[in-house]
Amino acid sequence: MTGTRFRDFIGLLDKADILPNCTLIPPIPATDRDLMLAHSWEYLDTVERLRKDGGWLSIDTPVTDGAVEAQRLIAGSGLQAAKYILDRENSTAHTFGGFHHAGRNFGEGFCIFNDVAIAAKALVERHGLGRVMVLDTDAHQGNGTMDIFLDDPRILFISIHQDPRTIYPGKGFVWETGEGEGKGFTVNIPMPPLSGARNYTQAFDAIIEPVAREFAPEFVIRNGGSDPFYGDDLTMLGLDLDGLNMVSRRTRDLALGTAGCLLDMTVSGYGDWATYGWLAQLCGSEALETDYKAFCPKQPRRNPATSEESLARATNSMLESLRGELRPYWKL
Ligand SMILES: [Zn+2]
Q1: pLDDT tens for residues 126-150?
Q2: Is 17 inside a domain boundary?
């Protein structure tokens, strides 16, 4: 990843007087053994060859020394954060992670190593947990994470994202519910373009909360990011800063109310608004009363292209189809 947004975000946390209350932990890079929790040996071998020779995993995913080094550090930080949480009661931790487009044997969408899946897999395989939930609220569906856990009933993967007919990676339809023993443990919620806080509330009420409560996770990882923001350069969803805050607040309440912990990963957000979205999100997932909007420029004007009523109807109709797909597995 390029640019200064990670540094800018730390500056923003300082300005908002949040940084003094944070414990910053220097990351340790993930080892090959760590990466193999989620990726095949053949894939890691391909990545290493491309790194040496110079090459691309996909049109948007160059394999450079810098990219590999950064994503090893991010995957390592996910493992450290998971361990940090396990060692403490009722705790939360954050990483600059969420590289959810890397699958077991593929990398794409800027993602080489899937830090979300590596952390989740470590929790079940190394720390002996039986039920881990990954809630992916990024605007893009987490196709790599879905690929890695498709047949794994120990990981409940819920992705709420922009309708895949309108955005990369073109996956995440209601009927994609897992395979084999993992049937029912993959849940995709494709939101109509321009969906805002009201529509996300519908999805939390109808699907995310009831399924999560029935699953009763022992650990919750949220793959967040601010690209569902309506001013984002790459997406077409409709959450404003308060909406991002609300989604994070509900995620926190759900995670602490079930598993008693939350590992929050944040990497997405494209354009001038990324870091402000991250701040609104962090204030939600940490239940901070900070007036985050006081540290942001005035939000851009919204384009009221679709009426609230028709969006609510489209969301309801999608949720009804999804309920139908999930009823064999969950009490909905
Ligand atoms: Zn995204």
Answers
A1: 999 999 999 999 999 999 999 999 9
A2: yes
Ligand 1 centroid to Cα of residue 154, in Å, is 25
Provide the domain limits for residue 97.
5-294+305-326
If one counts the domains in the chain, the total is: 1
For the domain that residue 270 is a member of, what is the CATH number? 3.40.800.20
Task: Give distance in angstroms: CA of 138 to centre of ligand 1.
Answer: 5
Diameter of the chain by CA atoms? 54
300 part of a folded domain: no
Write out the catalytic residue numbers.
Answer: 101
Asked if residue 252 belongs to a domain, the reply is yes
Q: What distance in angstroms lies between residue 227's CA and the mean position of ligand 1's atoms?
A: 6
pLDDT at 230: 94
HEC readout, 174-224:
CCCCCCHHHCCCEEEEEECCCCCHHHHHHHHHHHHHHHHHHHCCCEEEEEC
Q: How far is CA 159 from the centre of its chain?
A: 8
Q: What is the pTM of this model?
A: 0.97
Residues surrounding ion ligand 1 at CB below 5 Å: 138-140, 227, 268
CA of 275 from ligand 1 middle (Å) equals 14
Domain assignment present for residue 71? The answer is yes
State the average pLDDT over residues 244-264. Answer: 98
